[in-house]
Design goal:
Elements lengths: L14 E7 L3 E8 L2 E9 L2 H5 L8 H14 L9 E5 L10 E3 L2 H9 L8 H21 L10 E4 L9 H4 L14 H15 L7 E7 L3 E7 L2 E5 L19 H8 L6 H8 L4 H6 L4 H9 L3 H22 L8 E6 L5 H11 L5 E5 L3 H13 L5 E3 L9
Helix pairs in contact: 2-4, 3-4, 10-11, 11-12
Amino acid sequence: MKIVENINGMPPVGNVLVVNTGSITTKFGYYVDGEVVLDRKLEHTVEELSIFKDVMEQDRMRTQAILEALVELGVKLEDIDIVMCRGGLFTPCITGVYNVNDDMKEVLSSSRDGNHACNLSALIGDEIAEEINRIREEKGLKPRFGKCVAYVADPPMADEMLPECHIGGIPEFPRKTLFHALNTRAIMRRYLRETGRKAEDTAAIICHMGGGVTISLHKGGKVIDTSHGLGGDGPITPERAGCCPPYPLIDMCFSGEYTKKEIKKKLIGHGGAVAYFGTNDMRIVEQRALEGRPEYVVFMKAFILNIAKYIVAQAAVVDGKVDIIILTGGVAYSKYITDEITKKVNWLAPVKVYPGENELGSLAENGYIILAGATKIHTYNKDKIIED
């Protein structure tokens, strides 16, 4: 399967390794001239991970697991031209691609801006790139694209929001970004390719629906507003509470019945459908709603309405001048959900559905764009946002 057919009119060339670390999985893919050759998911058991006090201590274990798997699968490390990694939690940054440098590794390894397994991807990718360069030097090889470098693409905390979109109700609570940047940017590129439109002339609201739901406004090639996937600024999701009324939340925090960790878990992980029904599988919720079970019917209506409200709210930022609304993510496989959302928002703009997500493929696509010299490479500075 081709990841991307052409870049600037030319077919993709090169060998791309992709690394995507999750809480209990390490996914990696290998692509040759745009074709997926390997797509693997390594499962890490609870016993395997329990020996580590913190997720950031798992980098060497996961790196070794990938290297051993590549050898078993017959991939020669010296043949890899570029390593693409899932973006971790780091600020300040904007959308686009970044080479993995010391500043980035310091912020990720210290979890300065957040602690999550996604922080490991860039650290692992950089270690693998260094190993590739060591092997090439040892063998006296002259690679066609020069030194192997690790990159990240469209990190989740990328911030291009308009200044007025940052303002919260009090100065201590500014609005921040944390959204599905990788998938939504890939979907935007796909939409532009299919329609022949230009990014600078297009305003799109993209709703990614998975375990988390984020709604982002793309205009002129930037993401100028977005909800926050983990910060309580957004709709109800399969496992997250979304926006909560502050006074009851304050009362819960000071009730003495819950620890800080327990309250955070109620909001993220045990919120949404999990809180109501004990499942984050929207297929189950949908099926029971269609069977007419009242509590599921009402929740499904609320889920759809919440998303529609946030989509429509984004339109105010551009005075209602929206060219397309796009629904994506795993939940978008549900025709019932996408049809019901469409009914509520298609008066604003046409609706397009791209179900699912392909993070490995999206990263590989960015890799080929880099190899073709068709994008700007950003250099991360831990203390200062770069100018696009």
